[in-house]
Design brief:
about 40% strand, alpha+beta, about 425 residues, two-stranded antiparallel sheet, single chain
């Protein structure tokens, strides 16, 4: 019995050693991925580390789901077994100067026939032959993902805007003699922040890292704004945990495109946007509304009739700095009717008729804060991502601090619960 136990222990030790050696070899091999020397930023994803660090939760989810296969499981299975390309332990993607929000990746083709068969079975209608002699194949996977491959390499692109063609991928593949290994890019290698997902741009003005643990993503962002920002002023004091959503920002709006677009759609043109806050309450607001209907009397004469009714709308409040403002100055494109109050230097717009006479203001201890409890958030727009976050009871928390007068650190987390649990 002791002899069997010794052999069992030896076998486990050898297995662990083999796995460790294999892991290290894959880690070192991943650094040989090809990158364009013109890369302006690098985005990396640690595939092996994500699996290892979340192995227990992956096994548990598979047991609970049984034979059910969700989209993520299906995708990872296909990625593992079908494409015929070398999937490294780390995926390195890079952006180029012409579009910082488009990311390119280069993978070595191990089996051209498998690659071709995979796309022929899944995206036959999106495939086109650019050169049958090489051969060179192009696929517009969807409006945001495109692929070009030959017998040596597969290059792909992921971008936020809609893609019309794969010309840039073809040019990238033709320029393969200029490619360099990731480990030879001194401006990125060993300088990227550590995390399951990391991002670093060439001038080091943005460094981002995120770790996935069970049903939670923790992230950290160091951001050099490249210009000094005014850190003076007050904010409205609000208890974020009593809201479904609360955001306030004192960072230059020009640097935050999404928030800038939202704020500019809600405030009068030319307003001071050095401060903006937005809150959505858990409860709704009952408002009185009216509409005019056209009908006919008994003599078939056209008559107009005013119908009064009530409607539940989201309880939304937002504010910004002001000196002088009239209610009519609010944008007319707003979906809901807002009343506006001038109080202590703030313009406060709200869908709920309320007094802000007891308004409290304070000096902010952070340049930016975000709190979103998606479970309590009303569905303002029919968006599949927001609906998915609501169903999974997701929460987004974000806090920040000034590092210098021109740089900020932002950290936070996104957590969720499986909607099937």
């Amino acid at each position: 019995m002791k002899k069997i136990l010794r052999y069992l222990i030896l076998a486990l030790v050898l297995l662990a050693l083999g796995l460790f050696v294999s892991y290290q070899l894959r880690q070192n091999s991943a650094k040989n991925q090809m990158i364009s020397p013109s890369a302006t930023s690098v985005l990396s994803i640690a595939l092996d580390d994500i699996v290892i660090d979340n192995l227990s939760s992956i096994i548990l989810e598979r047991k609970q789901e049984g034979s059910k296969e969700d989209r993520v499981s299906k995708w990872t299975k296909e990625l593992r077994t079908s494409p015929g390309v070398a999937i490294p332990s780390w995926i390195y993607m890079f952006s180029l100067n012409q579009d910082p929000l488009a990311f390119y990746g280069i993978l070595e083709v191990k089996d051209y026939d498998k690659v071709f068969s995979y796309f022929a079975n899944t995206h036959a209608n999106q495939m086109s032959f650019l050169d049958k002699e090489i051969p060179l194949v192009s696929i517009l996977v969807n409006s945001h993902i495109s692929v070009v491959f030959n017998k040596e390499y597969l290059v792909y692109k992921i971008q936020s805007s809609k893609q019309e063609n794969t010309t840039d991928l073809v040019d990238l593949l033709k320029d393969k003699d200029s490619w360099v290994k990731y480990k030879d890019l001194s401006e990125f290698y060993n300088l990227s922040p550590k995390g399951h997902i990391s991002y670093l741009n060439k001038d080091r003005s943005v460094a981002f890292s995120a770790d996935l643990a069970k049903s939670k993503v923790n992230f950290l962002l160091d951001w050099n704004l490249l210009s000094k920002t005014n850190q003076q002023g007050y904010i409205r004091e609000v208890d974020p945990t009593s809201k479904a959503l609360y955001i306030y920002n004192t960072i230059d709006m020009e640097l935050i495109p999404g928030l800038k677009s939202l704020a500019k759609a809600m405030v009068p043109q030319g307003s001071d946007l050095s401060y903006f806050d937005l809150e959505i309450a858990k409860d709704s607001v009952l408002v009185n509304k009216s509409r005019v209907e056209i009908g006919f009397d008994q003599d078939f004469n056209e008559v107009q009739k005013t119908i009064n009714y009530t409607e539940l709308i989201p309880n939304i409040t937002y504010s910004f700095y002001t000196q002088e403002l009239r209610e009519v100055d609010l944008p007319t494109e707003l979906i809901y009717p807002f009343s506006i109050t001038l109080q202590d230097g703030f313009s406060i717009a709200s869908t709920k008729q309320q007094s802000f006479a007891n308004l409290k203001k304070k000096i902010p201890n952070a340049p930016l804060q975000v709190y979103v409890n998606f479970e309590d958030l009303p569905l303002l727009v029919d968006n599949s991502l927001v609906r998915e976050l609501q169903q999974n009871k997701a929460k987004l928390l974000l806090d920040s601090e000034w590092l210098t007068s021109s740089s900020v650190r932002i950290w936070g987390s996104l957590s969720w619960k499986n909607k099937d649990k």
